[in-house]
Structures are given as C-alpha cells and as structure tokens.
Amino acid sequence: MSTYLPTIKQLQYLVALHQSGHFGRAAEACFVSQSTLSAGIRELESLLGVTLVERSRRVVRFTPLGNQVVAKAHRLLREAEELSELVQSAGMPLVGELRMSVIPTIAPFLLPRMLPRLRKERPQLKLFLREETSDAAIESLHQGRADCVLLALPYATGEVEHEHICDDPLLVAFPKDDLRDPPSIILPGTIDQGRLLLLEDGHCLRDHALAACDRPGVRASATMIGTSLHTLVQMVDNGLGLTMLPQMAIDAGILNGTNIIARPLQSDHASREIALVWRRNSPRGEEFRLLAQELRAG
User: Fold this and answer.
1) Predicted confidence band at 94 (pLDDT cuts at 50, 70, 90)?
2) What does DSSP say about strands 148-153 and 96-102: parallel, antiparallel, or unpaired?
3) Which of 175, 154, 155, 162 has the alpha carbon at shortest distance from 237?
4) Angle at the Cα of 163 (from 159 to 165), degrees rounded to 5?
5) N or C end of the chain, less CB within 10 A?
6) What is the mean pLDDT of the chain?
7) What domains can be seen in the chain, in order of their start residue?
8) What is the mean predicted confidence (pLDDT) over 233-257?
9) SS3 string of the chain?
10) pLDDT at 90 over 80
11) Which of the two residues, 54 and 188, has the higher pLDDT score?
12) Lowest mean pLDDT segment, chosen from 74-78, 99-103, 237-241
C-alpha cells in the first residue's frame, strides 16, 4: 500500500475546479484562496506523478486521465461524507446539516407551509435548500452535492430509495373567456395539442403533463414552452393557449388575479407523486424516512 495518498481536501479542490472550470470560482466554493487551491492541485499531480489539468490564461482543460480521476474522486468524497453521516445518524436524528434539492414545481408551493413547522419542531436541523430542475437535482444527488431530493415521480432517478409524501393531481388551465370552453371534466382526446404550453426540457412536470394527455405525439408539436409555472400562467392569461398545472400550485394561489379556469382531467396518469428520494444504502436512510414523515405532516 502506498504511503502517499491523496487527501480529501486535494480531491475536493479537484472536483470543485472540474465543476466550475475556473480557479477563482473553485476557490470561492472551497472557501480558500486561489493560490491555496492551485497549490493543492499541483501537490496532487506531483503525488500521482501525472498531469490532471492543462492550464492556460483563458482555459482550464482536464486531461482524459484527469476526467477519470475526477469521476473516482466524486465516489471517494461521497463515501467519506457517508462515513461522517453514519456516525451522525447514530446520535439524534435530524440534527446538523442536511442538503436538500427541491424542484421548482414544488419548492414555492409546498415549502412555505412545511418549513415553519419543521424549523419549530427541529431547531437543531440546519436545512440547506437548493432549487434545481429534476435533471440537475438527480445529478446533484448522485454526485454527492445533495443528501436528498424532493421531486415528483415517476422520473428516472437511478439507484435511489424514496418515501411517498403525497399525490398531486394535474388540472387543465385555460382562459375563462375561451370560446372552446371545455366541460367540467376534460378528456385527454379533447385537448388541442397545438395550444398546449409546456415547461422546457429538464422539468419532470413536462413529462407528467404529456403522460396525462395520453398522446405521445404532443411532445413534437408543442412549440411554445415556458421556464416556470408562473411564466406558463402568464402565457395562458394572455390567450396564448392552455397548460397543465399541479393542484398544489393552484392551492397556493398561482391563479390569483388571473382570468384562468382550471378543471380536472380524466386520465389514468393525471397525477404526480411527490416523494423524497435519497441514494440507495445511504446510512441516513432512517433519518430521511423521518424527514418524509415530517413533510407529510405539514
């Protein structure tokens, strides 16, 4: 066994540089000076006897071997964190730091009514929240940047465990004065796919809306997209089409002040499952189940 092994700090510097592509931003992310980070990476290269990063005035480029080392470093750092979490989970649950990513179609509607009670009942829990699209949140989870993710299923999550929070129906939203005012319960086949407004790729609600319509061809013909539910609501309110909204957003008042009606959709897939997910075999699994229980109670 080699006497000289990379340190956790050196691996953290390397991963931060790979993520940011810039020495200054990587140093800020690691809370060190740029010279300290640069020296740490050079020490790592000297220790391994290879070049991991090609440096120039304008570009930071990783060598093929450097990319392989970064991938391995991600796994080692995640396992180091899990070692720390294993010790922490042996004590009081939901104490200390917990990093949770939340998707944008949940965060502004569910968290405001859940977090005040959670802060009151779990004052020793330091919950760090990051709002990310479903794609980015799952990547953060598997790269170790997030401990758990609050998102909507079904969605491709990789090897994870999850705990059910609630079911969230999807409704069809359209202008009140629409001459094509549909009946009180809407059938998927009556939706004009040329008028359907969707979220951009990367949001799981886009896939859920398409599944609810029972018409795969909608994906190709829906040309108008929005970056957020609030943007879609404004587009519908201005007569540009119709969209699908989750019940939790409507309950939170997203349609207040608009001339929009929302009606239920009669479909086997007109609902999404809100769930808390975490990496399979995480030592904090029981803690996440307890957190899910707290979120359900909210």
Assistant:
1) confident
2) parallel
3) 175
4) 135
5) N
6) 85
7) 8-83 (1.10.10.10), 88-159+281-297 (3.40.190.10), 167-272 (3.40.190.10)
8) 92
9) CCCCCCCHHHHHHHHHHHHHCCHHHHHHHHCCCHHHHHHHHHHHHHHHCCCCEEECCCCEEECHHHHHHHHHHHHHHHHHHHHHHHHHHCCCCCCEEEEEEECCCCHHHHHHHHHHHHHHHCCCEEEEEEECCHHHHHHHHHHCCCCEEEEEECCCCCCEEEEEEEEEEEEEEEECCCCCCCCCCECHHHCCHHHEEEECCCCHHHHHHHHHHCCCCHHHHCCCEECCHHHHHHHHHCCCCEEEEEHHHHHCCCCCCCCEEEEEECCCCCEEEEEEEEECCCCCHHHHHHHHHHHHHC
10) no
11) 54
12) 74-78
Phi-psi region of 61 (alpha: psi -120 to 50; beta: other; left: phi over 0): beta
Indicate whether 102 pLDDT > 90.
Answer: yes
- pTM for this prediction: 0.69
Question: What type of residue sits at position 244?
Answer: M
- Read off the tokens for 205: 């609600």
